[in-house]
Structure formats: structure tokens, C-alpha cells
Amino acid sequence: MRLRVLHETHYVYSNLVRAVAMEARLQPCNDEYQSRQRYRLQITPRTQIEEYTTFSDLLVQHWTLPRAEELHVVSESVVDVRERPLLPIQVPPLALDPITFYPYLHYTPLTYITPDIEAFAEQFRDAAAEDWYVTALAVREALHATLDFETGLTSTNSTADDVLRLQRGVCQDFTHLMIAVLRQLGIPARYASGYLNQQFHPQPPMHMSQSMSSNGMRQEMGNGMRQEMGQPDAEYAPLRGSGASHAWVEVYFGPGATEGWRGFDAANNLLVDDNFVRIGAGRDFHDVTPVKGVHKGPAEEALKVSVSVTRLG
Fold first, then answer.
1. Quick check: is 91 in a domain?
2. Structural domain contains residue 233
3. 169 neighbors 149 (Cβ within 8 angstroms)
4. Which of 21, 123, 150, 215 has the fewest CB atoms within 10 Å, i.e. the most exposed one?
């Protein structure tokens, strides 16, 4: 499937600002499940764009402006996406290299482990000792049932503990809390940034009774998932994540081709499939912030972001 992504970020300043320094993480990656066919970044006012790559191979583009009253950042991408592994797998606890997986096993300021998060994670302790895949499904579904999706209550600096206390948030907040819970259980988890194709419902939600059952039910769940993929069912609510960047959790299940890092969208209670366009991943939102920057001068900043994802073929 070929998808076109148009991501527009518009800043308007109440007064002239100086020494504007900005950076963007907007280029979709190339990996085994997607191929970037085109990517273009346009900055208005025009300026020279420099680049560097982060520890997780994420492209960062950055630029400066001597002065500005407004700033328009437009990225356009065309990406071919392929089917990702979706069938259930058995994943007993893994022995991991502590250096390689350190960034995804330890807390960050946004995923700090508090007593409340420890208490919430404890209900999954027995499952984590048996099967990491089943645990990830259980955590995803529990968060989807516990948290309400609501904008305007949290910010880009809200922590996983803030979200658990409020029991509300957006996709970023669902992702941070799921990461914190999994890391508390000793399961490697990272923050993935990208986009979600809203035109098609990826798969219907899977219920806890299915994901936590026996091997026979596991296979039945896989068969049902394959049958249900494709067209949306009228009873399902619209997917969350339209009009902006999307976020989800990636969990590590081993070095095999059908294991690796798999995606879990807690905000929509879905597995990540070929309706997701991946930019990259990091420890938390701060590693993959789509657009951010600083400036000099006493000015209020008005920000407007719009994202559209269109299927081309």
C-alpha cells in the first residue's frame, strides 16, 4: 500500500523574534516494513537545512533564522508500507544484553516509575514471568479500558504518572504510561513516532479473554484477526490520531524475523500494521519530537499543526 503524508506546522509570533533555532524529525524511515519513495521538507522563510542522525538512526533536520514573525514547516512523504507480523507468538522472558537494551529498560523523566505505576504494573507480574507477548496485549487493553482519550488536559511534558492520575490523555500519554509499565516489568519498550492512515480500520480490538487464554485460543485469535482485517466495522469508533502525528509502543520479543520489535497502539487498542507510517523510535517523546525550537524575544507563540494521510494505491 502506498501512502502520502502531508504534515504542516505553522508558528505565528505576536512580536518579531530573533535567533530562531528549530529542528524537525519528520522523515519516515526505511525498514523491512516500509520504503520511503519521496520526502521533501520546505521551510518558509527559506533557509539552509542541516542534518544529523540520532543514536536510534533517526534523521534530525535543523535550521536557524535571524528573525521571524511567522514560520511555516511543511513535509511531504510518500511511503510504501507492507504487512507487519500480526499473528500471536509465545515469548518467554528473554535474557538481554543490559548495555544494548539499557535505553529501553530504564525510566526517563517522562516515564519515571512512581509507587502508583509500580502498583498498577503489579497486576501483570505473573503474566510477565510467563509470556511477554501476552503481557503486552494485557497492558495495552488495560490502559485502553482505564484511560479516556481527551485533548487539552496534558502537554508534551506530562509524565506517565500524570496520565495515570488523570486517567485521561492523548496518544503520547497512552504510550508513555504503557512504556513505564512494561519497563517496570523488565520488558524492553520504546516510543515510536509516525502517522496513522485513518481511511481504513486496521483490525478490530482483541479482548483480554482471548489474549490471556490457552494456546488453542491463541490460534483462534490469529485466525479471527486475519478474517477481520480490512474494511472497518460500523460499530467501531473512529481511530484516534488524526490531524497530528501519532505515537505507539514498540516492544522487543527476540531476534527472530517474526519477533523483533512489534508495535502496540494503546490509544486505539490495536496492533501496529500496514496502516501505520513509522518515522522512528526513541526512549520517549523527547527523542522523537516532530518539530521543536527556541527563539529570543518577548513574544507569544501560536501553533497550528495539521496532518493528512492519503492512500495512493
1. no
2. yes
3. yes
4. 215
DSSP string, 152-185: SS--TT--HHHHHHHTEE-HHHHHHHHHHHHHHT
Number of structural domains (the chain) is: 2
Are residue 305 and residue 266 in the same domain, yes or no? no
Q: Are residues 163 and 173 in contact, defined by beta-carbon separation less than 8 angstroms? A: yes
Instruction: Say whether pLDDT at 296 is over 80.
Output: yes
Residues 280 and 296 in one domain: no
Kindly tell me if the per-residue pLDDT of 75 is higher than 90: yes
The one-letter amino acid code at 231 reads: Q
CATH label of the domain that carries residue 201: 3.10.620
CA distances from 220 to 1, 80, 215, 264 (A): 27, 30, 9, 20
Percent of the chain's residues with pLDDT above 90: 78
For residue 196, what is its C-alpha cell?
A: 496513522
Residue 53: pLDDT over 90: yes
When pLDDT is cut at 50, 70 and 90, the band that residue 306 belongs to is: very high
| Predicted pLDDT of residue 232 | 38
Angle formed at CA 26 by CA 23 and CA 30, multiple of 5 degrees: 130
Domain for residue 145, yes or no?
yes
Compute the distance between CA of residue 176 and CA of residue 110 in angstroms, rounded to an integer.
7
- For residue 175, what are the CA distances in angstroms to 12, 230, 248? 29, 25, 5
Secondary structure class of 118 (helix, strand, coil) = helix
Burial class (CB in 10 A: 0-12, 13-18, 19+), 230: exposed
Q: Are 64 and 109 in contact (CB under 8 A)?
A: no
Report the chain's mean pLDDT, rounded to a whole number. 87
